[in-house]
Every structure is written in structure tokens, then in C-alpha cells.
Specification:
The chain is of the alpha/beta class. It folds into 2 domains: 103 residues, Urease, subunit C, domain 1 (Roll); 301 residues, TIM Barrel, CATH 3.20.20.140. 33% of the residues lie in helices and 20% in strands. Strands 1, 2, 3, 4, 5, 16, 17 and 18 form an 8-stranded mixed sheet that branches. Strands 6-7-8-9-10-11 form a 6-stranded parallel sheet. A two-stranded parallel sheet has the order 12-15. Helix 4 crosses helix 5 and helix 5 packs across helix 6. The chain is globular, with a radius of gyration of 23 Å. It starts with a helix and ends with a strand.
Amino acid sequence: MTRKTQILRCLAASLLVCTGTAGAQSLTITNARILDGTGKVIERGSLVVRDGKIVSVAPGAPKSAAGRTIDAGGKTVMPGYVDAHRHVVKGNPNEWLEKSAKGELQEFLDAGFTTVLGAIDPPQLIEARKRIEAGQLQGPRLYIASMIPLAGALPPAPRKPDAIGFDPARTDPARAPLTGPAAPAIPHEQLIKLIDAAKAGGYDYLKTIMNATPGGPEIATLKFIVEEGKKRGMPTITHAVSIRDTLAAVEGGPALLVHTPHIGDLGADPVALKKIVDARIPMTSTLSVFIPHFGPENKPLFRDRLAFPLDTLSSAGQGPVNARQLWDAGQVTYGFGTDTQWAPKETLVDELRGLALVFSPQEIVRILTQDAAKATMHGQEFGTLEAGKLADIVIVKGDPLQNPYDLVNVVTTIKGGKVVFEKRP
């Protein structure tokens, strides 16, 4: 072997080692207060990651380290946050992808969110996911739903003059009495074309909206969509915001209810409460939709960034109350979800305001991690810090088990073993 050949082989070997190390996404976290997401607390522990997955979580120093070592300095280490109901793309989708996606996707990581479920988003978010997976963008793990209608359109209901062009939640038909004609059914062959198009387009879920009409086709159509989705490996997720529509949705058997019912009191209807709990369908919180958001001008705003509609304010209290009643009646899988487009850290604060009314800090940690991961149908992959799971991790300054608002104080975010955000001193 010539001297030149030896040098070339050494250089090639060095390159392979460097490439392997960079791609392996291995690291060790020491001196950490660990909340593993299952309810277990390790006051002084360590966590080892190899090839993007957790290999050990244990008290004390690690028996063997891997990759870069991060000294947590006694800070809280916990699973990455999951928003299981979000709308990611804003404004013109093409402009968002080319001009805004880079910064806005990074904002999720900065706030501690390693996974986001886009509950209705255009194909541009699928393209953004491809760019994330190719290393061209940095952002959370994305799962995306495509809308499939449950019925044909009825003539539009009268709307308040000041609501024209506003967010449809301002004049939600779920708030109206159950009157009027049945909505027209959609032929099955048309639904199949929409479902196949969603599958071919790279979507993960089928999204439906339950606004039941008297004698309408909505429940039967939901059952059909659920079954067709299962054939294609696409779970169905369903919007239902009143008790009436939630009961209808439960009959259809979707994999996820993407809202807490906030219209109607479950405490006054124990039969409905039991039926929803017994269905064992995961649910996302989305309490902050009807809690005023306060920006720099200190004015109450709705999620459309316009003045908050005070005639919906009762939902700000009813949603959390119903959530607690569902939780106590059957320990439902209740995952964190926001259904907004405010910046991720702002949305986290808003949703915490609703959750903190009725849930303990310990319960909120579970809702934001383990239960939210289950709501995406990927809880076996992430959501807790356990050996074999993806290394989605946040390091937080403070103690979220004493003060849930400490969850906002993220100093490091790790996705799949890779550090994707570090707060500068």
C-alpha cells in the first residue's frame, strides 16, 4: 500500500466517523431533575441518548456516556411538548412556505414543542415537513390532517354584521338550537375520491367537523369515513364543540376528538358524560380558543386577532369545567391542543391559563406530554422519557410541578437526540 493510499483511507475513515457522529444524534444529560412524563421524578439523574433514541434514564451519573455531554445544572428535564391540535400555515400558503416557514417552525422548537399536529393545513405544510426531514429546515415533527366533509352545504345561516369575514367560531352553528332541514348526504364514491386524494397527497389523518342536522347523514358518513380511513392507515379526527355534537361524533367512532365540548354543561347531563367517557376516545384541550388573548395593547383579542366576542365568553369557563368532569369520571386521555395561530410560546401561556383553572401542575405535565402524544396516535414513539423512545427532550428552568408557568422557561430543546434550540446566557 502506497503512502498516498494510506492517507486517502485515513481521510475516508475520519470522514465516516465524523458523519456517523453527526447523524447518530447521541448525547448525555447529567445533573438533571428528571420528570419522565409517567409521573416519576428523579431528583438527581442522567439520561443517555444513542442514535436519536433514549437508552437509559436513571438516578445518579450515567454508567456510560454517549456523544456530547450536557450538564443540566439541576434544571428540570422532561419530554418534549406536543401540540395535538394546531393550525400552522398562516396567510398565503406559498408565501408562508418561502418567507415565513423557517422562522415560525423554529419558534415551535424555541417554545419546547417537538411535535405538532396540523389539524387542517394545506399541502405547503407537507412540503415543509419534507424539507425538515431533508435537513433543509429545522422544525418540530409534523403530522397533518386533510378535511373531509360529513355532509353537503346548507344555505348559509344569518350572521351578525360585524362577524362577516371573521373567524367562523364567532358564529359557530353548534351554538344554535337543533332546527332546520337535514343536510344533504355526500355520495360514497365522492368521499372515496377525497380520501384517496388525501392519502396520495401525503396527509396522515382525515379531519371531519360534526355539526349534526335533524335527521341528517353526519353520523353515518363519519362511520363510513372512519372505516375507509382505517383501510388506508389514516385515522379520523373529529371536531365537535357542543355536547350534542360530541355525542354524535362518539357514535361515529373517530380516533380523536379535537376539542373539549364547551357548549353545554356535562355536570347537568350524567348520561352524556358517561357515554363520552365510556367511548375511550382521546380528546384535545383547545381551551384557549375562548379565553381572551392579550397582546401588547392589553386588549382582549380572539384568535383572528380582532376584538374578542364577549357573547362567547361563557365557553371560557364551561370548557375547563367539562374537562375536569370528563377527567374525574374516567381518566380520559386528555391531550394538549390549542387550535390557534398565535406564536407557540404565547399560545402555551394562553392554554395554561385554561388548564390551570381545573388541573394540578402534575396533571398539566401529563396533558402536555404523555397524553398529547397519545392523542396523535404516536404515544408509543415519544411523549415520555423511557428507553427505546425517541429522544424528544426539553430542559426547563424552574419546577413545573410547583408552578405550571415554569413550562414557558425552556432553555434547551432536543428533537430525536439533536439539540435544536439553546437559550443564550
